[in-house]
């Protein structure tokens, strides 16, 4: 499925803990966020967890699509823009949330819409890292992160070979 050399599978439990850790970190940076802008679709899941932890009720989406067939990045398309009411004063006090930043292209496009907003992701790869203000875990650029909503239970072959007798 992926051409990346390494894989980093994330369970629901781990994702919940990492998203909650991100909420803890964000709570120490600002008492109250005016709104959360989540980058669909991946940002919807951490945004729900963070909004619950921080008590944020105003949630907006920006709909960006880039990866096709899961692992190759195509042209970035903004399918839905941010409500203009939130764009005033460059987005000061607004929290942008995504599941991860990889090349940083998605983050770059959304940052340009809200230059003063705070950008948070659960995971980051080195190329995207400079575009993110707060994240929890960094993985190498040649690692593909498998999110729990893309995974299912399946048989795993044993690590060692079976011995006769
Ligand atoms: O840093 P980048 O190289 O731009 O990649 C990161 C983006 O790619 C994925 O979204 P994708 O466009 O695949 O859509 P999805 O969230 O709907 O899965 C991921 O959720 C990030 O938004
Ligand atoms: O490592 C990744 N995992 C899942 N989706 C992604 N979109 C860009 N990079 C990734
Ligand atoms: Mg996404």
UniProtKB/TrEMBL annotation:
Segments forming domain Phosphoribosyltransferase: 11-155
Locations listed in the record: Cell membrane
Signal sequence residues: none
Pathway stated in the Swiss-Prot or TrEMBL entry: Purine metabolism; XMP biosynthesis via salvage pathway; XMP from xanthine: step 1/1; Purine metabolism; GMP biosynthesis via salvage pathway; GMP from guanine: step 1/1
Required co-factors: Mg(2+)
Function, in words: Purine salvage pathway enzyme that catalyzes the transfer of the ribosyl-5-phosphate group from 5-phospho-alpha-D-ribose 1-diphosphate (PRPP) to the N9 position of the 6-oxopurines guanine and xanthine to form the corresponding ribonucleotides GMP (guanosine 5'-monophosphate) and XMP (xanthosine 5'-monophosphate), with the release of PPi. To a lesser extent, also acts on hypoxanthine.
Similarity comment: family membership: Belongs to the purine/pyrimidine phosphoribosyltransferase family. XGPT subfamily.
Assembly and binders: Homotetramer.
Protein's name in the database: Xanthine-guanine phosphoribosyltransferase
Organism (species): Consotaella salsifontis
């Amino acid at each position: 499925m992926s051409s990346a050399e390494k894989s980093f599978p994330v369970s629901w439990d781990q994702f919940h803990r990492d998203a909650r850790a991100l909420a803890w970190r964000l709570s120490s940076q600002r008492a109250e966020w005016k709104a959360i802008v989540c980058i669909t679709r991946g940002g919807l899941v951490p945004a729900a967890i963070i909004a619950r932890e921080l008590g944020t009720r105003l949630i907006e989406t920006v709909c960006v699509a880039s990866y096709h067939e899961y692992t190759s990045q195509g042209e970035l398309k903004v399918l839905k823009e941010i409500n203009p009411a939130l764009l005033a004063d460059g987005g000061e006090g607004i929290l942008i949330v995504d599941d991860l930043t990889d090349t940083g292209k998605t983050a770059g496009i959304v940052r340009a819409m809200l230059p003063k907003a705070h950008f948070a992701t659960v995971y980051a790869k080195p190329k995207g890292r400079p575009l993110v203000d707060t994240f929890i875990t960094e993985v190498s650029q040649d690692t593909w992160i498998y999110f729990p909503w893309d995974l299912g239970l399946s048989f795993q072959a044993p690590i060692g070979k079976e011995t006769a007798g």
